[in-house]
Amino acid sequence: MKPSISRRQLGAALAAVLPAAAQAQQAQQAPTSGESDKAMEQLRNNSKALGEYKLPMSTEPAFTFKP
Amino acid sequence: MPAAIPDDYCFLTIAELNRKWRDKEFSAQELAKAWCDRLEKFGPRYNALALPAREQAIKKAKRADDELKRGRLHGPLQGIPFGAKDLLATDGEPTTWGARPFAGQVFDFDATALKKLEKAGAILIGKLSMVELAGGGGYRFPAASLQGPGLNPWDRTRWSGGSSSGSGAAVAAGLAAFALGSETWGSIMNPSAYCGVTGLRPTYGLVSRHGAMALSWTMDKIGALCRSAEDCGIVLQAIAGSDDADPGSAGKSFYYTPQYTRKISDLKIGYSPVDFNETVESGMRADFLAALEVFRAMGAKLVETKLPAMPYGATASTIIAAEAASIFEPIIQDGRVNQLADQKQIAGLKAGLEIAAKDYLKAMRIRRLVQEAMGKVFVDVDVLLSPSAFKVAPKISEPLDNPSPVPGSGINRPDSIGKGLRDLGAAGNLAGLPALSLPCGFAGGMPIGLSLVSRPFNENLILALGVEFQKRTDWHRRHPKL
Question: Catalytic annotation on B163?
Answer without folding.
Answer: yes
